[in-house]
Every structure is written in C-alpha cells, then in structure tokens.
Amino acid sequence: MIDIHSHILPSVDDGAKTLDDAIAMAKAAVAEGITTIIATPHHRNGTFENEKQSIIEHVYALNEALQMHHIPLSILPGQEVRIHGELMDHYRDGDILSLAETKYVLVELPSNHVPRYTEQLLFDMQLQGLVPIIAHPERNSELVEHPNKLYELVKKGALTQLTAASVAGKFGKNIKKFSLQMIEANLAHLIASDAHNTTTRAFHMREAYDVIQKQFGSPAVYVFQENAQLLVANDTLYKDAPERMKKKKFLGIF
Ligand SMILES: [Fe+2]
C-alpha cells in the first residue's frame, strides 16, 4: 500500500517532532501494510515553510535511519502546498516540490473557504503540465456546503485526495458521510493518511479501505490503491470509478 500524504519527516512541521517519533510512525505504517510513503511537509501555510531542496535532504536522512533500523518502508519526497497567488512563480523559482517528483502537486485549501483565484490557479498549473491534487476537500467547509464547487474544480482537471481518517469516521459523522458521497459521485481519486503522529492523527489506512470495501466493494479499493501506484509512476490515474458506483443524485447537477 502507498500513502501519498503524510507528515512523517521529523522536526519540519506539526508532524513527527523527533526522529524517534518518525520511526514510531514508520513502524505503525508498516503494521498497516504500507510500503511507501510520500512525505509532504506543510509549505506556506502561514506557519511552516519547507522548500524543495530542504525536503529532499530530510527524506534522504530519514531513509538512511529507516534502513539502520531495518524498517521496510521507503520515503519519497513531496510537499503539501497551501494555495497562494504566487504559487506558479515559486514553482518556476524551484521552491515547489511535486509528489515523488512527478507531475502531481498536492495543493491545500484553507479549511473554511475556497479563495476566488483557485480555479484560475489550478488551470495555470495544468498549462505548465502539472496536475493539482486537492488535499482533503472533505474537510473544507465551503466545499462541504457547496459540493458543486468541488464538482467544477474536478471537471476542470483537478484531482482530489480523501483523508483515510475522514472515511473511517475519525473526523465525525458528517465528514464521513460527505467522503462517502464524494466516492459515490466519482469525485475522489486517492485515499491518503495525512498522518501527523501515531495517536491523535494516525494513519487509519486499513480502516478506511475496510469501510470502502464494505460500502463499494473490491473494485473501488482496487481503483484507489492502483491510483496511488500510478501516481508514483507518474502515470495517468483512473478518473472513473466502476460504473455501478456512479450515483448521480449527490449533486443533482449531472
Ligand atoms: Fe497534510
């Protein structure tokens, strides 16, 4: 299993505080069946700045530590970029790091709204050959209230990543319900942990896939797991879930 969003790099953001914390997270990940993790420290979220080169160096050091501890887990470099008006300028300056150095970029919206320039920026990214992946849209209150906005962003080429803990119900019933509705409506492309630690913000990947298996069956689990592999290979992701999952009543706008 591949996890494309995590805060496992020590001492760079609000994820793992120390190398020991990172090692504990790595062991927890392996116990869930995770073999590869993309480390995605926060960047430009108002508190943390983690530019491309520095992340690559931290990932190298963590992989060395994991090997020393004989933990069978690979860490790949990535970044969770808070959406900002100069994002493409910073990309050209070399500060922005895509997921596993592919064309896929993990973009975070503020939690309570969608900035007006979002659609244009996601379009500009695609003009440069990048594919934006919106991190945890199910935790953005404006998108939950107006799912047609999410539909428009996806229709215009953005992909989305649901948090495993959301699917597993750890953020409450409403976020779980919205997450499952997103899957039903074909608006979710990836499941990832966004793990910050082993306690309050743990992986929950196995639990999430168990929920998806029960609700939607094996084809859905396959699509999500395959998409994570295709992403790491810089290949094209599946956008259409199995036909029987397409329940279009969710948005009422198809
Ligand atoms: Fe995150």
From TrEMBL:
<dbReference type="InterPro" id="IPR016667">
    <property type="entry name" value="Caps_polysacc_synth_CpsB/CapC"/>
</dbReference>
<dbReference type="InterPro" id="IPR016195">
    <property type="entry name" value="Pol/histidinol_Pase-like"/>
</dbReference>
<dbReference type="GO" id="GO:0030145">
    <property type="term" value="F:manganese ion binding"/>
</dbReference>
<dbReference type="Pfam" id="PF19567">
    <property type="entry name" value="CpsB_CapC"/>
</dbReference>
<protein>
    <recommendedName>
        <fullName>Tyrosine-protein phosphatase</fullName>
        <ecNumber>3.1.3.48</ecNumber>
    </recommendedName>
</protein>
<comment type="similarity">
    <text>Belongs to the metallo-dependent hydrolases superfamily. CpsB/CapC family.</text>
</comment>
<dbReference type="GO" id="GO:0004725">
    <property type="term" value="F:protein tyrosine phosphatase activity"/>
</dbReference>
<keyword id="KW-0904">Protein phosphatase</keyword>
<keyword id="KW-0378">Hydrolase</keyword>
